[in-house]
Amino acid sequence: MTRSTDAMVEQRRLSADMKRKRVLTELRAAEERGECPSLSALARRAGVNRNWFYRHPDIRAEVEKTAALLLSESEGNTLVTARKTTASTRAELAHAREEIRRYRARVAALELRLSELLGASFLEDLPPERRMMVANSREAADELTRLQQANYELQEKLRCREEELTAARSSIRELMVTRNRSNA
């Protein structure tokens, strides 16, 4: 990636992290006040769109878990306690899935960067004549691809010409048969 692309990706990641922190801060504040947090109220207070919660299921699950905990504390019935257990399990699962997704994306980016760095390092360590061979092999591979494409196109043209020739021969045969019958 280019430097400007890296900077944009980093800025986007920082923005997402800041939104996540604002939402979690508002969630904790609502919990301390003893309020049952709703997605709409949290979105307003944190300055995010309500749809943001649906793109971050781990946070949404945590909000549901907190709401269920607050309900169970205030109401104290077993149905709410059962929902709390389900909600907490869902929250943990959603959080784990989101974390795994983030780690996989980060690992893929790191693997790509490592591959680029190792390739560049490998080329730098090669003697100049070997570097020329690598460059020549890349050029040869590009040329091979170009020639294969040209070959394919020529084969298609040949196939079309053969079909036209077969059709022309068939027409000539029919004309000769018709002419021979009319002369006979």
How would you summarize this macromolecular structure in one to three sentences?
With 184 residues, the protein is mostly helical. The chain has helices spanning 3-33, 39-46, 52-55, 57-75, 78-125, 128-183. It has two domains: 3-125, no CATH class; 129-184.
State the main characteristics:
single chain, 184 residues, 6 helices, elongated
Written description of the protein model:
With 184 residues, this protein is mostly helical. The chain has 2 domains: 3-125, no CATH class; 129-184. It contains 6 helices and no strands. The protein has helices at 3-33, 39-46, 52-55, 57-75, 78-125, 128-183. α1 (3-33) packs across α2 (39-46). The chain is elongated and about 110 Å long.
Order of helices and strands: HHHHHH
Question: Percent helix among the residues?
Answer: over 70%
- Termini Cα gap: 80 Å
Q: Beta fraction of the residues?
A: under 5%
Oligomer: single chain
Query: So how many helices?
Result: 6
Structural class: mainly alpha
Largest sheet: none
Low-confidence stretches: 77-81
Radius of gyration: 34 Å
Number of strands: 0
Inertia-based shape: elongated
Mean pLDDT: 83
Overall number of domains = 2
Layout of helices and strands:
Blueprint lengths: L2 H31 L5 H8 L5 H4 L1 H19 L2 H48 L2 H56 L1
Helix pairs in contact: 1-2, 1-4, 4-5
